[in-house]
Amino acid sequence: MKKFIKSYAAIVITMSLFGLSFVWSEQLLTFRHFPPQSLTLFRLFFSALLLLVFLVAVKRFQLPKRRDLKWFFLLALFEPFIYFIGETNGLRITQSPSLGSIIIATIPLFTMIACFIFYGERSTWMNIAGMLMTLPGVVLVMFNNDLSLQAPLSGIFLFFLAAMATAGYAVVVRKLSAYSPFTIVTFQGFIGTLYFLPLSLGFERQALAAVRWDFDTLYPLAMLTVFVSALAFVLFVYSVKQIGVAYSNMFTAFVPVVATLTAVLTGRETIAGHQVAGMAVVIFGVILSQWTVGRRSFQ
User: Fold this and answer.
1) How far, in Å, CA of 130 to CA of 290, rounded?
2) In angstroms, rounded to a whole number, what is the distance separating the alpha carbons of residues 24 and 263?
3) How far apart are CA 6 and CA 220, in angstroms?
4) Rg (CA), the chain
5) Per-residue pLDDT averaged across 203-219, rounded?
6) Would 40 disulfide with which of 84, 131, 149, 203, CB 3.0-4.6 Å?
7) Domain boundaries defined on the chain
8) 259 touches 88 (CB < 8 A)
């Protein structure tokens, strides 16, 4: 029972932090004009460095075996590289944490499809019905009252790219079950840094030089680095190992709730009635799509 409580507490905290990350990221990208690839680079490098220091301090540092390096590089390609290209650029284009978070909430649906393709995991008719139910919900969120798109189509596409990348991440992370969550997140952070370094230095050097390094920049950057890129990812990998991909991803429904409430309460966004209804449909569909996937027992 203790293990059960710890596992579900970890995933609830994870998804709440992911929800807050949309608001912190949007603050940096929109109001502080922080270049998106450089933002991810800073988050990854300093969170990985923080975790490395922790692992060395507690004498739990573990080098990946040579045969597993390909899985670590593939893992980091999906997330953080492809995921953060989709999320940060999607936020920069749409300037809408609520829209981004509700599209990201469709991650379990892409994960369900990926697990069927690669692991032969079958879904029930209820799972499929829940998956299909999310589609009209996402459409409601995407459009305004006059049927115009709430945000540019390119930004919406990038959010869906991020969701699909996380499904790939969830499939690959199973290959690394011999490693602790701290080790996995540490090395995916350093490898992700290598992926983003050419983009940051090659295309964003001038924009990065123009960033104002005051409290309004450092505070959200620190929150993203410590609590999202480090803590949340460790908790996510831990929960996947304990309760499985399907049950962990079911809690993705928390992400748009936290992101939207924070954006509305801080005055960053206003939400129309039909968009609230769309969010409710997506959240219910996500829960339904995962509800009947096998059970895990905890001793």
Assistant:
1) 8
2) 10
3) 27
4) 19
5) 94
6) 84
7) 2-108+151-271
8) no
